[in-house]
Every structure is written in C-alpha cells, then in structure tokens.
Amino acid sequence: MSSTEIAYQGVRLDILNQVYGPGERIKEVAVARKYGVSRTPLRQAFGRLISEGWLENIPNQGVRVAKWSLADLEHIFDIRVRLEPYLTRCAVDRLDTTQLLALQGYADDFARYSNTAGEVAIQKRTQANHLFHNTLLMASGNPRAVAILNNLVELPLVIWTFRQFTPQQTNRSNDHHYEIVQAAGARDGCWAESVMLNHILAAKNAVKSRLASQVESAGR
C-alpha cells in the first residue's frame, strides 16, 4: 500500500470513528507522524478526501473535517425531494428483471444490518443504501439529473445521516425500501414515487430534529 493510500485510509477511518469531529482542524505534522508518512503523500491524501467530501480546505486556516449546517441539510434534502422521487418514477418502467432482483437484494442487505449496532453495521447499511438508490437512479434514463444528485449527496453525509437515526427510524427506512421494491415489481411508478418522497422527507425530518437538538444542547 502506498504512503498516500495509508494516509487516506487512516484519516478516513479516524473521521468515521469520530476521532476527529465535524469542523475539527486536521494538523498535518501530527497526522504525518501518526501514519509514518511524509507531508507530500499526506497532502495528496487530503486532496482526495476533500474531493470526496470528507474534508474541507479553509483558506489561511488549513484542512478541517467537513460539517453541515442546518441550512446545508435543508438545501440538500430539498433538491433530493424534487429530483429523486421523479427519477424513481421514471426508473420503474425501465428496470429489467436483473435490476429488480438487485433492488430486492440491496433491501435485504440493508435489513440484515438494521438492528445491529457498531461501525461495521453502519458501513454495511450505507453500502446497501447507496446501491439501492443508485440502481434506481441509473435506470431513470436521466444522466444529467443523476450527476446532480451524485455530486450533492456525498458519502460522508449519508454515513452521518445514518448515525443520527434511531432504531425505529432505521426500520422505517427499511420498510420504505421494501415498499419501493413492491411498487417497482408492480410497475407502478406513481406508487414508487410517493414512497420515495416519504422516504426522503422522513430522513430529512429525522436529521433536522437531531441536529437541532445538538445545537440546542451545545448552547446550554
């Protein structure tokens, strides 16, 4: 494994394990020493993490862990609400048998880890969720809209979102996946669109509520 890859994987795992919190500055010297790499490959790793949305480069301040404000989340979810249900409806009539079976499999994978705690379970749910949604998006026949969503919904944000879910909210998300599979199997685009809308709105309100409570607690 190259020095750049060692630094990339190490910092990424530290963020996932909350060694560094949202908005926390990452000090080059300390990280380079921790992973036994020079500053050149470390900066290359930082560049990759910035491009993927894990880190932010702040002028005259350095690199910090990405964070999302309540306004950021509002904007992201508002765009998803307008695009993703529509793309889901478009996808339903275009999905072939292989894709329908894949959707069922991804829903099963998500469900398998829905009631399991820990970082591995969150990673597994995140992967299954990404594959589920991406299968629908890619079948929609609208690559421009898909590109907008893929640039908007960054993996760190998805992982952070799942961290905010209660077990009940995770189970509700799981139920939505299965209902979308049912709607797709019935070739009912309106049904699938409606469930996807509820799915995204439920996630939006769960995250908003959790973030608002965190802000309130921090202000005490």
A few lines on this structure:
By secondary structure, this protein is mainly α. The protein is built from 10 helices and 3 strands; from the N terminus they run αβααββααααααα.
What brief labels describe this structure?
TF_FadR/GntR_C; 10 helices; DNA-binding; 74% helix; Tscrpt_reg_HTH_GntR; transcription regulation; Four Helix Bundle (Hemerythrin (Met), subunit A); 3 strands; Arc Repressor Mutant, subunit A; 220 residues; mainly alpha; DNA binding; 2 domains
Mean pLDDT: 87
Tell me roughly what share of residues is in helical segments: over 70%
Task: Tell me the name of the CATH class of the largest domain.
Answer: Mainly Alpha
Number of distinct beta strands: 3
Which secondary-structure class do the elements indicate?
mainly alpha
Low-confidence segments: none
Q: How many independent structural domains?
A: 2
Report the sheet-strand fraction. Answer: under 5%
Largest sheet: 3 strands, antiparallel
Q: Largest sheet, order of strands side by side?
A: 1-3-2
Please report the number of helical segments: 10
Q: What is the first-to-last residue Cα distance?
A: 46 Å
Helix/strand order, N-terminal first: HEHHEEHHHHHHH
Q: How would the global form be characterised?
A: elongated
Which value, in Å, is the CA radius of gyration? 19 Å
What is the name of the CATH architecture of the largest domain? Up-down Bundle
